[in-house]
Design brief:
single chain, 2 domains, 37% helix, globular
Length: 362
Amino acid sequence: MRILYVYPFCGLGGVETSVINKINALQNIGIDSQALLLNFWGEGGKLLMNNSHISAVPTLEDIVTTLNTNFDIISVIDFPEFFNLLDRLSISSKVIYETHCSDLNAMNKNYKILNHEKISAIIVPSAFNKRMITTLINTKKEIFILPNPINMNLFTNIPLSQLSINYENYIKKTNIIWVGRLEKAKNPVEFIELGLLLLKANEHLHFTLVGDICNDYDFFNFIKSYIPFNNAADFSFLHSIPNENMPQLYSLAANTGGCLLSTSNNESSPMTFLEAISCRCPIVSTNVGGIGELIINNITGKTYELNNISEGYKVINDLIYEENKSTRDKIIDTAYSMVKSNHSLEQVSQKYKRIIDIVLRE
């Protein structure tokens, strides 16, 4: 059996990471798969080319050669334009449409294609996504919820003594990290605002933003302009970190008493959360989109209302405060058990296989 993934972006985003993890999960049960990605996003896209299962193509027309190879299933991910090409070709493969949208404008754009006659089924990573589809469009297509998978053998906690020398200067501080594309939807300015407020009460903190600039240098400079000169050393920016190196950063935050902080305006089921939790790094997040399915406040993490800086400040302080360590440890343990039960490669591969069997039987 062979599966082809097609996605219109090629960077180090959550969707690309989820595709890599799906490829690995399916490989474990003997299913061969590969991905075609378009449009490089910064240096991160080049890093993806190190994966033998991933190819980059510059245009839709360049996909034709690969499509003429025999695939049992083509999984199209948030790429409605792809069907302009597919309609012109005689392809016998079953087609699954996968959508991870969390922004309403993107949903309205991507969901219009969901009743296309060539789509056999729809896959989403969360109940939030399924609910939004049924709210915004009338479709009789079957919608399957397939949790994002995480490789818990790769994403595991690394002791401070084993971290790269690059993080030596951070070990003596409590590290709070932010991971995502440096774009408006991810709301990095709120991370900096919260960081500056937290530093007023505790100078032994360090804040790191991890993510590609995505060629929007004006917005990147706008973000940096929020950091006063006197606080420049308290913030770091890291770009194009290979996915296999991310456990070091999550472990740095986890083992220095810090956390992963997400300030996004919208999310469905972030891969970064699964990665952090697998490394035993606790999470504080805005309570948006499908976040509540992963982060149950005070049980598997902590949430606060978007743009409520004072509430965000309080919940972060609660999580990193040394005297609350027993509560923090309980949150970490509960979140880890949840991810292991629902998102490990072993668990997801079996669920995925059942979906594939249903689609192929149609």
